[in-house]
Write the structure tokens for this entry.
Amino acid sequence: MNSRFLFLLTLLSLAGSGFAQDAGPLPLISVSGASAALEANIQALLSIDDERCDADLFRLESRRSQVRREVDRAAQGLGFYRLSQQLRFGRSDACWTLQIDVVPGEPVLFGDIAVRFAGAQPGESAPFEALLASSPVVSGAPLNHRTYENLKSALSALAVESGYFSARFSRSELAIDLARNRADVHIDFDPGPRFAFGTINISPIDELSGRFISRFVPFASGSPYSTEALVELRESLNNSQYFMDVAVTPELTAAQTSPAVTASAVPVNIALQVRPRRSWTAGLGVTTDNGPRMTVNYEDRYFNRSGHRQNGDIALSTMENRANISHIIPMAEPATESLSVSLGYVGQDNDTFSIDTFKLGVSYRSSIDIPLLGEEWLQNIFSNFQRENSALNTVSVNSHESSNLTISGINWTKTASDDPIFPTRGWRVFTQVSGASNAFVSDLSFLQLYASAKFVHTIGPGRALLRMEAATTYVDELSVLPVSIRFFTGGDQSVRGYQFGSLGARNELGEVIGGKHLLTASAEYDFTVRPNWKMAVFMDAGNSFTDLNALSLSRSAGMGLRWMSPIGPIRADIAKGLDDGGFRLHITMGPDL
């Protein structure tokens, strides 16, 4: 018992002395005459700060030569080979001090940069030369030993990523000539032979055919090895929604000579575990536009072994009801390309209008590159036949009507952000061209152009969020345009000081009838008030109108509270119409982009 007590007492005394040392004063080491980068490098390399505060000056002076060597080494690492220095040890009331005064002198500059790719076949050195072109190791730049070593490390890493597994440096030399104040770089880098992808082995699964899974693979046996291609394959399989576990393994240690390729081949093994085939989800929520809402979603992730999928969803609320079922067929590139056939119903009923629409449609979705605008835009080409019964809630005329339309069009969308749920910077663009012709199963002809954009960026302590949408319709008369094709504004996602759909072009009696053209904009700024909570101030403006020369915007302003919940932002806004509206409460949820 006594021995155990003594053991615990010893531990406590040791811990206490440790805590006391951690909490005690620290030596003050100051550097003057140096740039911020040089001072940081000197402070990082000094080792004398491990001396106790009660160390006498004689002991400190005994380490003077070591300190001088460490200062010189820190300076030379940044190209200062002619640095002069003075050291002064002293003592304050709490601990010892060290003042280091330096005069860096002129830095050594990079001179000739000679990097040769020995033994590289025509075209093989292109990726390495591109890396060299973006490197800070350039003639005339201040010498920095770290950037020189980083260049060599980057060449080696790029070689491995690109399949040059036997790459080596036959020469790597940094020749420093202090007489000329320059440092010449001489590197001979031999990539060696480039490996290729060998046999692609897909572990068989019952639910999906190997032929279908192979369409996700962005490379073929015999094509040049690339780590980037393997990452792309893994991400495509993970994002496909078919699999809950994906393993893509290159057998680098089992590279084999294949008669089909001229270099060594690396087999690739793909092992997959599918997700459960069917999924049902249900939810309850509330938004100001639609009131209480219930949703039910069904998904059949692999309807057959060719990867066909089926989705169904129902949304019920006091102001809007929706139902839709879709059959999705993966195309040649299933990660980005699909054909969808859908059947749906939309019913809306508010103070401005009521609509019942039945739709039958087909759409083709793919990923494309748009010149001057960038890569990986989502393109959707569609054609929908819809039967619509609608009415405007006006007293001036009987606006009940029925229409048959075949609306075809194309749209493009892209989202880029640093975080899909809580972005600090990013943007989203959507644009669409659609229309119908009375020459093809439609009661009228029209052409409609629509575009919307959102932008998020950090400014000061918070974020600026900008939103804008614009549209125009080419049609003979507004009166022939079905209500679902007209534009209305107001509500959660528009001018927040007004009820959903309450703004729009008006008739002679001042009743809202919707417009051919649309313009809305919003500016918002939010900032953190406590962890996971933000305050926001905003201003909105917008309206729809029948004449491009008769633009009249309604405005609103307000403030709100945001909770960064685990499932995304939940927003509560109080908005005031600045023209003829009152106060309105808006509750919404979902990502900012």
In short: Helices lie at 2-23, 36-45, 57-61, 64-77, 126-133, 145-161, 210-214, 227-239.
